[in-house]
Specification:
- The complex is a heterodimer.
- Chain A is α/β, with parallel strands linked by helices.
- Helices cover 51% and strands 14% of the residues of chain A.
- Chain A contains 9 helices and 5 strands, in the order βαβαβααββααααα.
- In chain A, strands 2-1-3-4-5 form a 5-stranded parallel β-sheet.
- The mean pLDDT of chain A is 86.
- Chain B is mainly α.
- Chain B contains 9 helices and no strands.
- Classes of the chains: A alpha/beta, B mainly alpha.
Chain lengths: 181, 234
């Protein structure tokens, strides 16, 4: 099974480690932990993560960064109160079962909206289309305004999901599925 | 799986792993082997028993690869074997896949476009594999054999001009793996399932064979070639 990736951004290290442990042991999601968003931006943005957990402070401090990622951002809340409007959130001050249920529900929703029949996300399909058109990683990065590392990460995921490594193989797959003509 | 040994009956070896028949053919051994042991068959066919056993075991066991032992065999033996493997690909495996593929396309209802794309991909793999076989036969093996001769007579001073490209072999293997994935995971539309199975089985046979062949070509012949080039220039 392909391993997904997540990031947990909070100044509360113990909370971050707890979420990281749950994601790894129950959902096969490898999570990184960060206290703030600065290093993330330097490393090429949040595109590469399937899901982002962030505390209220960091989210509010960098709303400009999180709004474009809203559909995969989950606020680590301290209450069940619905004060986050349309933002997804989980109450961290509750028992383990409820936290796990909440994460499972969010992942289910996220994966359902992102997936095609092949399991590729919409972003991965965009990358595949450009690969099949013969673009280099650098050209794809420039075209989609993402870093080369993110392109490489998408390509790795595409190959793992499809079982196809070679560029010409990916090109044939893209033609078979009407992604390119 | 236990290693094949010289006292075993060849018929038992075949029953245990029938895919080995294709390797036996490369040593001019065909079905109807009787009840002779491996050693008796080798004596009859004038084969080096140790080399024969090493090749069979390397083919049969994916985890078995005695590098030191293989490097000690005469380079002519190794090249003869690789040459017969290449001939087998060119004369049997590739035409077999292509013939079945053509039949599959012909019998598939509604002109299955996915199969046509897969055929296009197969033809690309075929061109690359054939190109490599031609290169091996016409350039690489000849140069290694001439270096080997020069070493025994001494005085051969030119630098080895053949450049091994390991990635090239891996690229062909990758493409064959991709082709297998396309059949197993992504095939859609209507098609003749018996013919499709025949094509897939033949491709899987090539995949296994090429993987074993590349191990010998790249991990045994390449170091021997480097060694011979170095020794000749020394």
């Amino acid at each position: 099974m392909t391993e997904s990736s997540a990031i947990v951004i909070t100044r509360d290290t113990l909370r971050a480690l707890g979420i990281k442990h749950l994601l790894g042991s129950l959902f096969n999601i490898k999570a990184q932990v960060a206290q703030g968003v600065s290093p993330l931006v330097a490393e090429g943005g949040m595109e590469q993560y399937e899901i982002i957990f962030v505390d209220e402070y960091n989210c509010l401090s960098h709303l400009d960064l999180f709004i474009p990622q809203k559909n995969k951002t989950v606020i680590l809340a301290n209450t069940d109160e619905d004060k986050y409007l349309s933002w997804q959130h989980i109450n961290c001050n509750t028992d383990e079962d409820r936290i796990v249920e909440a994460i499972a529900a969010i992942l289910k929703k996220l994966r359902h909206s992102n997936s095609t029949q092949s399991g590729l996300s919409s972003r991965e399909i965009e990358v595949l289309k450009l690969v099949a058109q013969g673009m280099t990683n650098k050209e794809i990065a420039d075209n989609l305004t993402i870093s080369i590392n993110t392109v490489l990460s998408h390509r790795k995921n595409i190959s793992a999901k499809l079982g196809i490594k070679s560029v010409s193989g990916l090109c044939i797959y893209a033609m078979m599925n009407g992604i390119v003509h | 799986m236990t290693l094949i040994n010289r006292n075993q009956k060849l018929s038992d070896v075949i029953i245990e792993d029938p895919s080995i028949i294709t390797v036996l053919n490369r040593f001019n051994i065909y079905l109807g082997v009787g009840d002779k042991t491996v050693e008796q068959v080798c004596a009859e066919k004038q084969l080096d028993t140790d080399f024969f056993l090493t090749i069979l075991n390397t083919f049969s066991n994916e985890t078995y690869f005695p590098e030191k032992l293989l490097k000690n065999f005469n380079v002519k033996l190794i090249i003869n074997y690789l040459n017969s493997t290449n001939s087998y690909y060119r004369q049997f495996i590739i035409p077999n896949i292509e013939n079945h593929f053509n039949l599959l396309l012909k019998r598939s209802k509604d002109n299955n476009t996915n199969l046509e794309l897969l055929m296009k991909f197969f033809l690309e793999v075929k061109a690359e594999l054939t190109g490599r076989i031609n290169y091996d036969t016409n350039t690489l093996f000849k140069e290694i054999l001439s270096l080997d001769d020069a070493n025994s007579s001494a005085g051969f001073g030119s630098e080895g001009s053949v450049v091994f490209n390991d990635n090239e072999s891996d690229a062909i293997e990758d493409k064959i793996n991709d082709l297998v994935s396309m059949f197993i995971i992504h095939l859609t539309g209507k098609y003749d399932s018996n013919l499709c199975l025949a094509v897939l089985t033949a491709i899987l046979g090539l995949k296994k064979d090429l993987c074993q062949n590349n191990r010998i070509r790249n991990r045994i012949l390449m170091p021997i070639y480097r060694y011979l080039s170095f020794k000749t220039n020394d």
